[in-house]
Design goal:
The complex is a heterodimer of chains A (593) and B (660). With 593 residues, chain A is of the alpha/beta class. Chain A is built from 20 helices and 10 strands. Chain B is α/β, with parallel strands linked by helices. In chain B, helix 4 runs antiparallel to helix 6, helix 4 runs antiparallel to helix 13 and helix 20 packs parallel to helix 21. The two termini of chain B are 74 Å apart. Classes of the chains: A alpha/beta (593), B alpha/beta (660). The interface between A and B is large, with 165 and 163 residues.
């Protein structure tokens, strides 16, 4: 409970800077409520004094007062709604910014374990659930409560006895609406989940349509769909049934209230204990309750969901950065590119270490190739250099500085990375290449693209470098993306270069082009390359063979072959094609003779 | 847009505030990012679409009619309540002069209760009131329940129709239409229809009935006061119109900015590793803040409109009340206004503008509905895959002979994709298709499965023309393994079983063993019950390939069609895959779009394709000696690795090699 209250406290804290808007909005809300309470009084007087006595003037005056007040209420109503909404949107603007900034600051280890869909749902649906409550919702809640209390007070003042009778159904109504909300909400969630399952089923079937058609399994897919679609139908139908059982009943409860008013009040009026105007005012007040009471049920629920949703959003915002910068961190200016690993051990908490006791030294202008089976720790190793993760033991040194002693930004500015999946952003090709160096000139961008063997295909697009990438632009092939990623790394001119050489879905010619681009890229830098191909390995100055988190062999290609260990084994497996080629070469030579 | 203009005017006089300047800059930037073509706006009402939409009501006609009748009754009862209150007050309390209804009431009371005093009248009408309210409650309840069935059913029907239709469409269609877009048809557009059918339609009908009832009741009570209320209608219509025309633009602006912002957010999350590598965090945040800010501005604009409109409608209600009370003053002079009538009028005018308010509020939904239904219907009108000819026979069990007799094919009329393909394959032969991307290899194998109709020539399987057999019977005898090994969510077992749904557990395991997948499956946490995960993310690329091989093998096809994957896999896995492939092709006619040298070398027939034609055909050795296209491809692809040791560029390498 305390925790929950803390969440609401924290949420309202977001409104603090906007106390002016808050003041205007709530002030206006108060004015509107008072107006609503006052109008029946005017009409009551008009009926009792004007109508009874046949005095036209009293009615004119009453009409005039209503008109003037209505104008004031109009302005107040505008202010109430506008600032209520304004606060709603301002809150979500602020919290989204906060969320985004924090999300970006969280380390790789966080992103490894979180899913895009989950983060997105926290920043979209959770925040919008929260925003609706914190601005306009909260104001509505206060206004509904105010009106409820106001009506009750005014009615009691009007006629204590009659009010007590007429208000009998109101507690039932309040309880019923809240209970209604409580039954409906979980079902809403269920329907949403069912809808999620239904869309998963549809999406899968459509994504795999080639497989579906290849195996002629359309009937099976339709059967799966029908099952989900019908389940959705049942759930939604049942939900609206609950609606049907409750909603009209709420209206009926108010009718009972009016019935009680007339049943007991009208005879009183007949006996002259009550004026007709009072009777009217009482009826008006009861009818006035309709909206707020029904909203109350909705708002109480909204408040509950907002609390839960806000908690989910705050979870991310409160996730600590596990690789913080030291307060007196150095700014790494010029770097030669000397990389040293000293007995480095790394692993996630309570799991087997991914890297254990790794030590090596890479000097500038040297290419270090990493090879080993999947899961041997190659990617993890290179990710320690830009400090995407922190070591558990040992040190990673750049030019003699522990990476934990320098600022992350200055460290990463000296490191260029081409990752296995060359992620491009949906902006123009030029912007993608200049991703790391936004101030680069068009000439520099083109130069980098030429070096990465990308210029030619870029120019083949009608809009050249201004071609948009992604859904609203061109679809690039894997090889094209990779070359843009290489150009991107090249443009930052890093002293230390990290490459993941696993090329997938690339055709022959492209592979060759990429090979050339990589060769250019590596010149004069400290290069780390996760190698898949022999040519890279042969060109490397230094090969580290990893197995299960350990460096099991190291040396040049020839040295390692001679050792006859894991490297030799991998080499033999890969060699098959090339051996065949050698044989063939001989055959051809003889055939040619 | 109007808002922006308003700003311009104001800004000419005063110098720009820094805040406003920021806002302008932001907007200028956002304008470039917004989609070029406007989102189809559509009309709020299109009779053609509306009629077609209404057609879905057909199966539920009776329920719908019942619902409309119930709605009419409940609206009437709802309207009657102020009227009854008036009678209680005028005849029960005030003892007004009797009118016709009063005379009937009195005689009724006389006959049944033998009492006609004011108390009896009062009690009588009070009871009528609660009965009317109870009637309203029950009819509403029945009506909502009926509409819940009809509305939800229709939405389920439309979705089902659409989904079924999608399964009849050609693969060509899927090449041009992303799954994301299809999903947005199936989810968002159908969702819009759902809102429309369940809420807007009934809400509107109810509002109309109520409006009619109120007008009749008011006219019957006092026509002069009614006219006073009517006088406000034009103003109300004007306000509603203004709202409708502006709110459309405002909401569209928020929607566009919302999706822009979310798109960027999504990208920022998926691309976080790149962002961090290039230390772009601050810049990205600035961009996000701009998108966020623009969305905020658009929301504020929309809120301003709503904040004018709704209090505006409320004001109209108060204005009507003021007029009724004020004009009531005139009528009092003529002594033609009773307290009951005044009260009933005040209660009525409160609800009088409700329908118009409702219409204005629903305007957006209407428009969205028309746009959505237009998109849905367009999709439904897409021609389905060529259907089986009426006299199609089932293809009997075949041996696997495949003949392409001078086949021509094009996707679009004037762009031939395949030309004069003449290829004859004996049962059990292995054919490797080689050529560059776009040479027509994939199209060729798709024609065998009859994913497309050929333009000219003949395609025979065991002498049967594929055009004359049912597609289902044809595809059942084909095993197709595609490059992207798509796995369905569910267990590994389910995924293998997909090849043949009635396969037994033993058969599944035997198949997995045959392709060499059994071993790693048993190592998985739950063996064959292990979840293959969303699109098989829990499995490595190689493992997924092996499962798709097992799936194809289980179907035990006579003809095997393989699009070999090029994704790089572990060397050890590579070995396994090689073995599995050999096992898979054993004794079957196979067509392979080959990327692995070993696959090509071991083929009985290598077919080299270029620009939609077969340019060379023969065995590996024959083709190499020929020294043509295959030779070029071959040297480029596989010759490079061992020779480039000294960093010799590839072209030189090839020459040095040939000069040997």
């Amino acid at each position: 409970m305390d925790n929950r209250m803390a969440v609401y406290g924290r949420l309202t804290g977001y409104l603090k800077p906007y106390w002016k808007e808050l003041l205007i909005g709530y002030g206006a809300m108060l004015a509107v409520t008072l107006f609503n309470l006052y109008v029946p009084q005017i009409i009551k007087d008009a009926i009792d004094e004007g109508l009874r006595a046949g005095e036209a003037r009293a009615l004119f005056i009453a009409g005039g007062i209503i008109l003037v007040l209505a104008l004031i209420r109009g302005v107040a109503g505008f202010a109430q709604r506008f600032y209520g909404q304004w606060l709603t949107h301002r809150f979500s603007y602020d919290i989204r910014n906060e969320f985004y900034q924090h999300m970006q600051s969280l380390p790789f280890s966080f992103h490894d374990q979180s899913q895009t869909g989950d983060l997105m749902s926290r920043v979209t649906s959770d925040i919008s659930e929260t925003e609706r409550f914190i601005g306009i919702g909260l104001m509505d809640l206060v206004s509904a409560l105010l009106l409820l209390v106001g009506v009750i007070v005014v009615m009691l003042l009007e006629s204590m006895q009659l009010a007590l009778i007429a208000l009998l159904p109101i507690p039932i109504l309040v309880v019923a609406t809240i209970r209604f909300g409580n039954t409906v909400r979980p079902r809403f969630k269920e329907i949403q989940e069912q809808m999620g399952q239904l869309s998963n089923a549809m999406q899968e079937s459509l994504t795999g349509i080639r497989v579906v058609k290849a195996f002629a399994q359309e009937p099976y897919e339709l059967e799966k769909f029908d099952e989900q679609n019908e389940a959705w139908f049942e759930q939604r139908y049942n939900l609206i049934q609950i609606w049907a059982n409750n909603w009209p009943f709420f209206t009926f409860l108010l009718a009972i209230s009016i019935f009680l008013l007339l049943w007991f009040g009208a005879p009183m009026a007949l006996r002259g204990e009550l004026t007709v105007g009072t009777l009217f005012a009482m009826i008006s007040y009861v009818l006035m309750l309709n909206g707020p009471v029904q909203r109350l049920g909705f708002l109480v629920n909204l408040a509950a969901t907002a609390g839960a949703s806000a908690t989910r959003a705050f979870e991310i915002i409160d996730t600590p950065d596990t690789i913080p910068e030291k307060p007196n961190a150095l700014v790494l200016d010029a770097v030669r590119g000397d990389v040293v690993f000293e007995d480095v051990t790394f692993g996630y908490a309570d799991e087997r270490p991914i890297l254990e006791d790794v030590s090596f030294h890479a000097t500038p202008d040297q290419t270090t190739a990493l090879i080993g089976p999947t899961g041997s720790g190659k990617s993890t190793l290179v990710n320690l250099i830009p400090r995407f993760y922190d070591v558990n033991a040992g040190r990673v040194l750049i030019d003699g500085h522990d990476v934990r002693d320098v600022t992350k930004a200055s460290l990463r500015d000296h490191i260029g990375m081409v990752l296995q999946d060359s992620f491009l952003f949906s902006s123009t090709i030029a912007e993608n290449i200049a991703y790391g160096t936004p101030e680069a000139s068009r000439e520099e961008i083109e130069e980098a693209a030429r070096a990465a063997r990308a210029h030619e295909f870029i120019m083949s697009f009608p809009e050249g470098y201004d071609t948009r990438v992604g859904e609203r632009g061109v679809t690039l092939s894997g090889g094209q993306k990779q070359r843009i990623a290489i150009a991107r790394a090249l443009l930052t001119d890093p002293e230390i270069l990290i490459l993941d050489d696993s090329l997938s879905n690339v055709d022959t010619e492209t592979e060759h082009l990429i090979q050339q681009a990589l060769a250019v890229l590596m010149e004069g830098r400290t290069t780390f390359i996760i190698a898949q191909r022999l040519v890279t390995l042969k060109n490397a100055d230094h090969i580290l063979v990893l197995d299960d988190g350990h460096i099991v062999e190291r040396g040049t290609h020839e040295e390692l072959l001679a050792q006859g260990g894991l490297y030799k084994e991998i080499y033999d497996l890969q060699l098959k094609d090339q051996e065949e080629f050698m044989e063939l070469q001989e055959k051809l030579t003889t055939a040619g003779d | 847009m109007t808002r922006a203009n308003g700003h311009n005017k104001r800004e000419k006089k005063e110098s720009l505030s820094p805040e406003e300047k920021r806002r302008r800059e932001r907007e200028a930037k956002i304008q470039d990012l917004l989609p070029d073509e406007d989102e189809a706006l559509g009309k709020a009402y299109d009779s053609r679409l509306f009629r077609r939409l209404m057609h879905y009501n057909e199966p539920y006609k009776q329920k719908l009619i019942a619902a409309i009748i119930l709605m009419a009754i409940s609206s009437l009862l709802g309207v009657s309540i102020p009227w009854i209150i008036r009678r209680v007050i005028d005849f029960g309390v005030s003892g007004q002069e009797a009118d016709q209804i009063q005379i009937w009431t009195l005689s009724l009371l006389e006959t049944f209760f033998g009492s006609t005093d004011q108390m009896a009248i009062l009690r009588f009408w009070t009871i009528v009131l609660i009965l009317a309210a109870a009637g309203e409650w029950l009819t509403n309840r029945a009506r909502i329940s009926l509409m819940a069935f009809v509305g939800t059913r229709i939405v389920a029907d439309i979705r089902s129709q659409l989904f079924r239709h999608l399964h009849t469409l050609t693969l060509n269609f899927y090449n041009n239409y992303s799954v994301g877009r299809l999903m947005s048809r199936l989810i968002s557009d159908v969702g819009v229809l759902q809102d429309f059918i369940t809420w807007s339609l009934t809400g509107l009908a109810r509002a109309t009935f109520t409006l009619l009832g109120i007008v009749v009741a008011m006219l019957a009570m006092n026509w002069r006061l009614t006219l006073v209320t009517f006088a406000l209608l034009p103003i109300m219509v004007f306000i509603a119109n203004y709202w409708a025309s502006h709110v459309r633009e405002a909401y569209r602006a928020t929607r566009q900015r919302h999706s822009l912002m979310n798109g960027y957010l999504n990208e920022s999350i998926t691309g976080i590793r790149v962002t961090k590598s290039f230390t772009r965090e601050q810049r990205n945040f600035n961009h996000f803040r701009d998108l966020n800010g623009s969305y905020f501005d658009a929301n504020v604009d929309a809120s301003r409109l709503a904040a004018i409109f709704f209090p505006g409608v409320d004001f109209m209600g108060s204005l009507a009340t003021a007029l009724v009370v004020g004009v009531g003053g005139w009528l009092v002079l003529g002594e033609s206004l009773t307290a009951g009538t005044l009260i009933a009028f005040v209660l009525y005018v409160d609800r009088f503008f409700e329908p118009i308010r409702e219409l204005a509020q629903r305007y957006n939904t209407f428009q969205a509905t028309m746009a959505s239904s237009e998109r849905i219907f367009r999709l439904l009108d897409t021609d389905p895959d060529m259907s089986d000819p009426p006299d199609a026979r089932d293809l009997p069990s075949v041996e696997g002979r495949v003949d392409f007799n001078h086949v021509y094919f094009s996707y679009k009329d004037d762009e031939p994709v395949l030309q004069d393909i003449d290829l004859h394959v004996l049962p059990g032969e292995r054919v490797a298709l080689v050529g560059e991307t776009g040479a027509g290899k994939s199209t060729m194998i798709r024609l065998i499965a009859r994913f497309f109709d050929i333009d000219r020539g003949q395609l025979l399987i065991d002498g049967y023309d594929v055009d004359e057999v049912t597609r289902r019977s044809l595809r059942r005898q084909l095993g197709i393994v595609l490059q992207d090994t798509f796995l369905f969510s569910g267990t590994i077992r389910d995924n293998i079983r997909y090849g043949r749904l009635d396969a037994t557990e033993e058969e599944i395991i035997a198949t997995a063993k045959a392709v060499g997948a059994h071993e790693f499956i048993m190592r998985a946490p739950e063996g064959y019950d292990t979840d293959a995960g969303e699109n098989g993310v829990n499995l490595s690329v190689g493992q997924r390939q092996m499962i798709s091989f097992a799936r194809a093998l289980l179907a035990d096809p006579r003809i095997l069609i393989l699009d070999e994957a090029t994704s790089s896999v572990d060397t050890a896995t590579e070995k396994h895959i090689q073995k599995a492939l050999d096992r898979l092709m054993e004794g079957r006619t196979s067509f392979v779009i080959a990327h692995r040298l070993s696959t090509i070398v071991s083929a009985d027939k290598i077919v080299v394709m270029d620009q939609g034609r077969i340019v060379e055909m023969g065995t590996h050795e024959e083709l190499l000696t020929e020294g043509g296209r295959y030779y070029d491809l071959y040297t480029m692809q596989w010759a490079e690795a061992p020779e480039s040791e000294a960093g010799v560029p590839e072209a030189e390498q090839a020459t040095s090699f040939s000069s040997n």
